[in-house]
Write a sequence for this structure.
């Protein structure tokens, strides 16, 4: 019955297949290690090293020792590393050269760990340190731009061309010029001694008995000479008075200009230095700009690393239409599809600065169209040091075109501690935040389009600052009045250059706080400026105050002198006429008496 | 190739049953018309080794049909494509696809399916034809061939030495 069977052939087949299998079993570990290091290095752009890889038969799979993936941007740092990993694989797909990992568990996953030797590939010996230095310079730029741009009152006064200074100098010039004119004019005005002499002279001329006509004429001439002198003196007095009047008007005008100048200076300085809340608008965007930018950079870094290996649906569709001479695989609906590579389920614990995170991944493959399901990564953290609960879900859906990659984030009770705001050495000392975020990247013919939104509610906020700049102090003082705030950040547009908008009631709160702080500070500054400017006024107007007072006194004295001169002139003339009349009367009376006596 | 040809001639001229040679050549056809590295070919090899068919003929047939496959491959691919995309067969293929064994056989590969279907369709007729041809060769051609001058010349060549060494 078994005559047609060649038993030696069967034994030979079994032996050959057995030898091949044994070779593969023993070589699988080293081959896998070589593949991981070679392919991993080309993907990461830096050294990928694994201590050892063992192939296991029951269950069929691999066990990996410590694996490190160097950071291509920072060769002395690992992008990630893990202590050990174990993977069980499906045998049937493996026979077809397909790596279907049923379960992958990774222990001791850590990010950004230090390396003892450079992880740069031989071809990547770039100027990493220079790049790092450039990055540091860029990071400080925002703080540098914003710190210390509010100078002190002294600096402002020293820096600016002040109206007060100009008005003071104009006042001084006017006063000095008028003073010279007044001195000249007052020199022509008779002084009190001369007026007394006039008084005595007038009295000498007008008193006593006029003895003769000659005496009278002589006195009359003397009086006329005095009257002419009075006239000249009166003219000098009037000239001086007019000059005093003009001086008073001009100097008063200049003085008013000087008094008005500080207000103009303060208005000008306020306008120039923007000591108002306008400068504080959208400050929340500045506050979170650097931090958000860093997060976005990290997220994009990982996304860009993964994305090239997520084939888009359109590419596979083209492949399907193309009839190759070597043939192709046609896939049918199934609950158990076999892409070239697939991790059905993976679980890992990652150690971060915030604590341990549980990360699970399902359906991780570069051929999602074959699998028919999107890849999903869930990150869960409970009872972390700084976050009560953290949950992030990432769905990479490349099962159809356009592809959609979505991430949602939900963090509650995030205890922020000493977060550098990058503004004026200001820190968010502590706060409790709840955050909800969503980001989606849609890849179509226009490229990668990002739609992202992040909402956050911050409570129990405390701010502090070690900065000594005025800006830092003002910012801290304004922030200290804020106990809670919300933020709402959005990013839309091309993935590499989205338009980012930050909205927050911190703006309005900060603006209000800034308004109050700035109002108080502005009043203080204005008072200091006013004081300084008053000093300048005193510097200019002070020495002239007595002279201005003396000017007014001079004016009054001149008025008195003028009246006195006029009185003196009028008094002599009246006395003389009366005397002549009296004498004429007396003579007429004596004549009349004599005539009457002769009649009787 | 010379060695294979010599072995084939040895088999043809020996007491090896014609069906053994014909069957070996027929088994070589699917292996040649489908991608070599496949589990289905491993099974065919197992059958070739297990059944007392002529291995020399199998190897010779594999070489010859592989040359033929270069012409047939496009036809095989188109046939496999049409079969796998045939709406009436979708349920059948989908059913097979749920089974790991059939997926390991690579039935859903267009060249594998097309080449295998052509080989399967040709298997029985080819077997009968080859068996008849071998019988006719032994009865009518072998003695006549041995008398040919060219064969006489070959007998003096390296090829004949190989043939002789194999024939023992």
């Amino acid at each position: 019955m078994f005559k047609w069977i060649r038993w030696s052939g069967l034994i030979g087949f079994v032996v050959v297949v057995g030898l091949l299998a044994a070779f593969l079993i023993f070589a699988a570990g080293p081959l896998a290690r070589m593949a991981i290091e070679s392919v991993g290095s080309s993907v990461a752009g830096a050294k990928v090293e694994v201590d050892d890889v063992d192939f296991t038969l029951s269950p069929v799979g691999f066990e990996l020792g410590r694996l490190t993936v160097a950071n291509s941007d920072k060769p002395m740092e690992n992008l990630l590393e893990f202590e050990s990993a174990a993977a069980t694989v499906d045998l049937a797909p493996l026979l077809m050269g397909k790596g279907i990992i049923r379960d992958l568990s990774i222990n001791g996953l850590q990010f950004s760990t230090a390396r003892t030797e450079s992880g740069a590939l031989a071809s990547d010996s770039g100027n990493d340190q220079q790049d790092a230095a450039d990055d540091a310079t860029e990071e400080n730029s925002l703080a540098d731009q914003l710190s210390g741009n509010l100078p002190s009152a002294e600096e402002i006064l020293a820096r600016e061309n002040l109206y007060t200074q100009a008005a003071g100098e104009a006042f001084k010039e006017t006063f000095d010029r008028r003073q010279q004119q007044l001195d000249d004019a007052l020199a022509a005005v008779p002084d009190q001694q001369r007026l007394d002499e006039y008084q005595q002279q007038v009295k000498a001329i007008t008193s006593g008995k006029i003895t003769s006509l000659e005496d009278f004429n002589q006195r009359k001439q003397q009086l006329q000479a005095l009257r002419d002198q009075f006239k000249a003196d009166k003219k000098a007095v009037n000239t001086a008075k007019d000059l005093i009047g003009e001086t008073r008007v001009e100097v008063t005008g200049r003085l008013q200009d000087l008094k008005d100048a500080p207000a103009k200076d303060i208005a000008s300085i306020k306008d120039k230095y923007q000591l108002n809340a306008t400068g504080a608008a959208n400050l929340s965007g500045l506050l979170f700009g650097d931090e958000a930018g860093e997060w976005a950079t990290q997220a994009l870094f990982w996304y860009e690393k993964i994305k090239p290996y997520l084939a888009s649906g359109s590419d596979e569709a083209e492949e399907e239409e193309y009839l190759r001479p070597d043939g192709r695989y046609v896939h049918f609906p199934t609950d158990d599809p076999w892409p070239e590579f697939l991790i059905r389920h993976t679980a890992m614990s990652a150690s971060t600065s915030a604590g341990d995170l549980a990360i699970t991944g399902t359906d991780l493959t570069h051929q999602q169209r074959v699998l028919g399901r999107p890849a999903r990564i869930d990150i869960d953290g409970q009872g972390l040091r700084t976050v009560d609960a953290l949950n992030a879900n990432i769905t990479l859906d490349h099962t159809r075109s356009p592809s959609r990659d979505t991430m949602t984030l939900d963090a509650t009770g995030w205890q922020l501690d000493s977060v550098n705001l990058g503004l004026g050495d200001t820190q968010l000392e502590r706060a409790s935040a709840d955050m909800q975020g969503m980001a989606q990247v849609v890849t179509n013919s226009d490229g990668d389009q990002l739609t992202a939104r992040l909402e956050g509610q911050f409570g129990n906020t405390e701010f502090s600052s070690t900065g000594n700049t005025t800006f830092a102090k003002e910012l801290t003082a304004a922030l200290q009045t804020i106990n809670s705030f919300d933020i709402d950040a959005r990013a839309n547009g091309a993935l590499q250059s989205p338009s980012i908008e930050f909205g927050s009631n911190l703006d309005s709160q900060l603006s209000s706080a800034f308004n109050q702080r700035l109002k108080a500070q502005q009043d203080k500054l204005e008072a200091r400026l006013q004081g300084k400017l008053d000093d300048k006024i005193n510097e200019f107007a002070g020495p002239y105050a007595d002279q201005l007072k003396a000017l007014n006194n001079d004016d009054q004295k001149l008025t008195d002198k003028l009246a006195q001169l006029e009185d003196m002139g009028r008094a002599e003339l009246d006395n003389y006429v009366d005397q002549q009349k009296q004498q004429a009367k007396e003579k007429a009376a004596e004549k009349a008496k004599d005539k009457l006596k002769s009649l009787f | 190739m010379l060695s294979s040809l010599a072995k084939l001639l040895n088999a043809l001229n020996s007491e090896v049953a014609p069906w053994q040679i014909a069957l070996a050549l027929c088994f070589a056809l699917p292996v040649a018309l489908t991608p070599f590295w496949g589990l289905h070919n491993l099974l065919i090899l197992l059958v070739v080794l297990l059944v007392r068919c002529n291995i020399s003929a199998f190897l010779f047939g594999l070489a010859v049909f592989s040359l033929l496959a270069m012409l047939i491959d496009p036809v095989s691919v188109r046939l496999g494509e049409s079969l796998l995309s045939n709406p009436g067969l979708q349920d059948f293929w989908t059913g097979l696809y749920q089974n790991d064994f059939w997926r390991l056989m690579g039935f859903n590969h267009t060249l594998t399916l097309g080449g295998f279907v052509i080989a399967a369709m040709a298997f029985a007729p080819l077997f009968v034809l080859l068996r008849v041809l071998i019988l006719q060769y032994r009865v009518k051609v072998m003695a006549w061939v041995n008398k040919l001058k060219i064969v006489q010349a070959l007998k003096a060549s390296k090829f004949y030495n190989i043939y002789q060494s194999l024939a023992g």
